[in-house]
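Ex. 9. Protein: GMP synthase [glutamine-hydrolyzing].
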Amino acid sequence: MTSHNSPPVTISPPADIHAHRILILDFGAQYTQLIARRVRESGVYCEIHPWDMSDADVQAFGARGIILSGGPESVTDVTPPVAPSVVFDLKVPVLGICYGMQTMAKQLGGRVTASNHREFGYAQVTSAAPCRLLDGLRDHSDGQGRALLDVWMSHGDRVEELPAGFVATAFTNSVPLAAMADESRQFYGVQFHPEVTHTLQGAQLLERFVREICGCEARWSAGNIIADSIARVREQVGSDNVLLGLSGGVDSSVVGALLHRAIGKQLTCVFVDHGLLRLNEGDQVMDTFARHMGVRVIRVDAADRFFKALKGEADPERKRKIIGRLFVEVFEEEAAKLQGIRWLAQGTIYPDVIESAGSKTGKAHVIKSHHNVGGLPEKMNLKLCEPLRELFKDEVRKLGVELGLPREMVYRHPFPGPGLGVRILGEVTKPYADLLRQADVIFLDELRRHDLYDRTSQAFAVFLPVRSVAVMGDGRRYDYVIALRCVETIDFMTARWSRLPYEFLDLVARRIINEVQGISRVTYDISGKPPATIEWE
Ligand SMILES: Nc1ncnc2c1ncn2[C@@H]1O[C@H](COP(=O)(O)OP(=O)(O)OP(=O)(O)O)[C@@H](O)[C@H]1O
Ligand SMILES: O=c1[nH]c(=O)c2[nH+]cn([C@@H]3O[C@H](COP(=O)(O)O)[C@@H](O)[C@H]3O)c2[nH]1
Ligand SMILES: NC(=O)CC[C@H](N)C(=O)O
Ligand SMILES: [Mg+2]
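Predicted structure tokens for GMP synthase [glutamine-hydrolyzing]:
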């Protein structure tokens, strides 16, 4: 990052990087986000919208191609979710994946049945006819010149009869119609899931669809995204001043660097110490930003205020809303003390938006209200400036690297805005936060010391307000429990618990029990996401 006094860098905006875009209609599959990530990785911008998007909105979106995701429902139900009919009239290529293929088949006049040949996991499909989507992709050959692909399946229903104009392009032993194509209309369907890495040629298949079949150019790169965001922010805020909520985490740090480049002195950052930070976190953030990077940062000590507002509240969603509201109150108070602030910038990223949103029909559930999206109060005086709102975490990190942020900052584990507030189960109190902070720092220090921090995606301690019996130094103890959570994930949407060595866990548990007065038991969380979310609340 350049120093605070340097003039904003002049960068000419690239060709419209959003113009070549793909629309993904979500039927509620667990892996819809992976489809989006694969499309983005091939250099093409895309957005996920609920399947019940209106015809007018689909049309206005202006996609060069549409992907219909998988989903838990069955098209054989009485009123199954269906794709907006305009999808098939827009004369753009359409790819249906699993449920998406099934509904495409049914909506265009084919037949789908619930089959007792359920297929979950690995399967091998054999190519059955030439097809622009699949030609040339192969993992093996069947000896008769036909390509075999290793794929991943997860379905019970299957397409029984193709709609007019389609041919079968692949089969498996249990599914005669495992892929279909109508080349003249550029409609394709695959029963398997190309978005998961277990489908070896899946990324290639999706790239083929968006780049060759839909004809999208690869404009979605870190350099282009930065130049585009800078241009957009400048246009958006003009000569107004902007207040950025800076947490020291990856997302807001990247926004900080971006805005610093885009609008220089018009930027002021506010770092809120809500009393639910990690040990010494506040000082570290001030050190890195204010001292080394020359960004103007105001530190607000609001711990008492947050604890007071959270007193007696045990419900996770209500806690999140309280925290979201207080954050904005603090931001607005600080803004009022400064000149010309009209905008509140935040490091909101795409998964925050998706997880906080429900679909119009209520089919998709709100899992948790991220404090910076669903947790925001309804009325706000400042307008929002969220340049990373369309990006996934790994894309944000690439931007951070490109913007010259230090590696340790870009690859930090994420820390949720509500902080320890969602890691103390139930009511939040200062004594609980103090205990948790001590346990957490031991866990993280040991991870770093054992070279495990960079090999895991997110690690933390959780405070359980239940007491269990222990005997220490011949005395009876009746103390609280700490749970350790450590996961590996790329996109934070699904996660696997880290197989940390037993010796390591043993060391951490002993240190916590010996060093943190008030904790007498430590457990390790071995739940995957799904179903267990990464945070406990
Ligand atoms: N303590 C804080 N002070 C000021 N703003 C905050 C604070 N905590 C969170 N925010 C705001 O809320 C946004 C969302 O928080 P979130 O934790 O998702 O992102 P982050 O902290 O920037 O990055 P990371 O996900 O890596 O922790 C932040 O980008 C920031 O704008
Ligand atoms: O800034 C944030 N505000 C929030 O309210 C919030 N809730 C969860 N997280 C982070 O999001 C990722 C996924 O978490 P979950 O599996 O718990 O939903 C994990 O990285 C979590 O730490 C949050 N971040
Ligand atoms: N993964 C899916 O899209 C499944 C589709 C449908 N629910 C089936 O079982 O066939
Ligand atoms: Mg954070």
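Check your answer against this statement. Residues 245-247, 249-252, 270-272, 346-347, 352, 372, 412, 414-417 surround adenosine-5'-triphosphate (ligand 1) (CB under 6 Å).
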